[in-house]
Specification:
- With 718 residues, the chain is α+β, with helices and mostly antiparallel strands.
- The protein has four domains: 4-19 and 145-353, Rhopdopsin 7-helix transmembrane proteins; 31-137, Pdz3 Domain; 424-530, no CATH class; 559-715, Heat Shock Protein 90 (2-Layer Sandwich), CATH 3.30.565.
- 58% of the residues lie in helices and 12% in strands.
- Strands 1, 2, 3, 4, 5 and 6 form a six-stranded antiparallel sheet that branches. It has a five-stranded mixed sheet with strand order 11-12-13-15-14.
- The two termini are 64 Å apart.
């Protein structure tokens, strides 16, 4: 990926690596007692009362002991539950925050001494004991919890996603604002990772500025979120008005940093809440403005859905923990994962990457979220309103949601995604009717009408012959258009704006139309085969009428012998009946067919004063179709005519034989003999052609008596 996109991504990777190394170095460079402190929250309580020892280097104090006081050479400090709080935003008043930072500075100063003494109790009310620890100059990497690495991952992923989107669409303001969010979100996660996993304390001044950077990142992320909805999918204001966002919120951040605001509510919480509400309001405006623009609707759907999903899951976890007690408390570091989900959805919406496929997944996620919300709501009503116990309420909730939600979900899916769609089986009769239409114009008209009913596009136009012809249906313009290849005798076609601009074409539509095109091709092959069969049959009938009946009628005009005329008329009538049977598909029983052939051959031989021997050892009689009977009858008649009229024979022999699924007929005469097939005027090529049409052969050779032997072989279907 040459040029600017490569530089953007490489710069983002370098920034991520540098930031992660810096944060990890900062955390590992803090002094360590080798102890793990954990907050002690008694069962049923909502606040932490003490700090307990989770792990110690040599098992003393034991795990679960209450940590009371940390004593150094020159100073000592009683330990409080708030010393290990993850986020100083827990405090409402700035005075409380400043007191917390001051305690952190005293604890950090204690940790600079070479040894410290921890006073502890095994249980509440037990005797106080003391254990002295050597303070290590830095922490070991193994002491860093999983939540630290998760926060680094969340921040790094958001920054790289933002860089990826802006590298793909560098000229759009939506990706630029997403890149701003991608830069600010790591500012919150990296700083939180630096102070939230401290063993006990870091310098209070450093802690305060890390917390300030955390607030700045959160507030600027909110500015970027508002700017995204101001500029994407379509600009709502002139770009210069975007400067109002930092003009308003940067002074607000300064008021929080320098304690000009009344308290934490006005300094940090209300501005972030204001940004969220403003983003929601702008999303509603964008939704109204994007009516009739399916690509913008799909992008906006992902923007709104990801925002609601990220914040909604965060609220859901908070409600579940604090109100219902369904889940254990979630660490703040893992809560960043919810905002990472939101950020990933924002990237998909702003990047507009394959929205024609993502649009359907948006509905899937939405229906899944509705199901989760329904379960929580019903369970909450049963527990809080009817005072049911947890087991009974959960079972009833699952039963009620299963009975109500699943049918409603199926109905919504049909209305939102599968609305107006048809199956391949339902389209089969119409496809056959289109493929077998009489003219190309009629096929084009019916095909265009079928696509109009299926997709209701705003535009449906033929594709010109310029450029390479498409071979498969393809999604174009981020789902705004669907291009169909030529198939089944109809030309390539381009459909634009599905459902008159209300929806995008999806991968499901491309697969469905690919199946339709394949069926159209198969139906067209059947049509072409049918037309070829009709054409070939017409040629055969014309050839038979001309070669057989026409030749005999022409002969009748030039002879005066009544006996000869009678014989020719009988032959012509027999051949006419054979042609009619072939057209009607009516075959004679094999014995009757053989009797007719023998009778006609005997009459012709007697009329010419020739002795005929007829031999047949066929048993049981094969099932010979009307077409095979006609072609065999005509070939045999032509062979007899050659022997009787041109060879000057006095003796004819016809031998029938059936073996290994092959019927063979040998006609032998004692005439003057004749050359190999191809002699003009003797009908030999006609005999060969008729047998080859049936998959058989015709071969001539000299007979023992000096005449000619003709061998006809015909394979029969087993």
């Amino acid at each position: 990926m040459p040029g600017t996109p490569r530089r953007i991504l490489l710069a983002a990777v370098a920034l991520v690596l540098a930031a992660c190394i810096a944060v990890t170095w900062f955390v590992l460079s803090t002094p360590s007692l080798g102890l793990q402190f954990v907050p002690d929250t008694p069962e049923g309580a909502k606040t932490t009362h003490h700090l307990r020892v989770g792990r110690s280097p040599d098992g003393s104090p034991p795990a679960g002991a209450i940590a009371l006081r940390l004593q150094g050479r020159n100073d000592g400090l009683d330990l409080q539950a708030s010393d290990l709080i993850e986020e100083p935003d827990f405090f409402d008043q700035y005075a409380e925050m400043d007191g917390f930072f001051a305690r952190q500075s005293r604890l950090a100063a204690l940790l600079t001494e070479p040894t410290l003494t921890l006073h502890w109790q095994a249980t509440a009310g037990a005797p106080v004991q003391a254990t002295t620890f050597a303070v290590a100059p830095q922490r070991s990497p193994g002491s860093l919890p999983l939540v630290f690495w998760f926060q680094l991952f969340a921040g790094s992923a958001s920054l790289l996603i933002g860089a990826w989107v802006v590298a793909l669409r560098p000229g759009d303001w939506g990706p630029r604002m997403l890149a701003l969010c991608g830069l600010m979100f790591p500012l919150s996660t990296y700083t939180a990772a630096a102070y939230s996993v401290r063993e006990l304390a870091i310098d209070g001044t450093v802690f305060r500025w890390l917390s300030t950077l955390n607030h700045t990142g959160a507030l600027m992320f909110g500015c970027g979120l508002v700017a995204i909805f101001l500029t994407h999918p379509r600009p709502l204001v002139r770009l210069r008005w975007l400067w109002l966002l930092p003009a308003v919120f940067i002074p607000w951040q300064l008021a929080d940093t320098f304690r000009w605001a009344a308290d934490q509510d006005w300094g940090a919480r209300i501005p972030i809440l204001t940004e969220m509400l403003l983003a929601i309001a702008l999303a509603a405006v964008q939704w109204r403005r994007s009516r009739g623009r399916p690509a913008e609707r799909a992008a906006l759907r992902w923007l709104a859905l990801s925002t609601l999903a990220g914040s909604g899951l965060f609220v859901l976890m908070v409600v579940s923990v604090n109100v219902f007690g369904l889940f254990p408390p979630l660490e703040q570091g893992y809560a960043f994962g919810f905002f990472l989900i939101m950020f990933f959805g924002l990237a998909l919406g702003v990047g507009r990457y394959r929205l024609f496929d993502l649009d359907e997944w948006a509905y899937r996620v939405l229906l899944w979220a509705l199901g989760v919300a329904l379960v929580v709501l019903v369970d909450a009503l049963l527990v809080l309103w009817l005072r049911w116990n947890a087991t009974l309420s959960l079972g009833t909730t699952l039963l009620v949601c299963g009975a109500l939600y699943l049918p409603v979900r199926q109905w919504l899916w049909g209305r939102l995604v599968e609305r107006g769609s048809a199956s391949v089986e339902q389209m089969m009769p119409e496809l056959v009717r289109i493929a077998f239409s009489a003219s190309a114009d009629e096929r084009e008209r019916l095909w265009a009408a079928a696509l109009q009913r299926l997709f209701n596009p705003m535009q449906s136009v033929p594709v010109g012959a310029d450029g390479p012809a498409p071979t498969r249906p393809a999604i174009l313009d981020d789902g705004l258009a669907l291009q169909l290849p030529a198939c089944g005798g109809v030309g390539a076609r381009l459909l634009r704006y599905r459902d008159h601009g209300k929806r995008l074409f999806s991968g499901r539509d491309a697969e469905f139309t690919a199946s339709l095109c394949q069926l159209m091709d198969q139906a067209a092959e059947g049509r072409d085969a049918h037309e070829r069969g009709i054409h070939d049959e017409r040629l055969r009938v014309a050839r038979d009428m001309h070669d057989d009946i026409g030749a005999k009628l022409l002969t009748l005009l030039h002879i005066d012998d009544p006996q000869r005329q009678k014989l020719l008329l009988r032959e012509a009538m027999t051949q006419l009946r054979s042609i009619v049977r072939g057209l009607a598909g009516q075959a004679q029983p094999f014995d009757d067919f053989m009797a007719d052939l023998r009778h006609v051959a005997m009459e012709r031989a007697q009329a010419n004063g020739v002795r005929l021997d007829w031999h047949s050892d066929i048993a049981p009689p094969p099932d010979l179709g009307a077409r095979h009977q006609h072609q065999l009858r005509t070939a045999l008649s032509e062979a007899l005519s050659n022997a009787l009229r041109h060879a000057g024979a006095t003796h004819l022999q016809v031998q029938w034989h059936l073996a290994s699924g092959t019927l063979s007929v040998t006609v032998t005469d004692d005439g003057t003999g004749m050359r190999e097939a191809g002699s003009a005027g003797l009908g030999l090529e006609s005999i060969r052609t008729r047998m080859e049409e049936l998959g058989g052969t015709a071969r001539w050779s000299a007979s023992a008596s000096g005449g000619t032997a003709l061998s006809l072989t015909l394979p029969l279907a087993v």
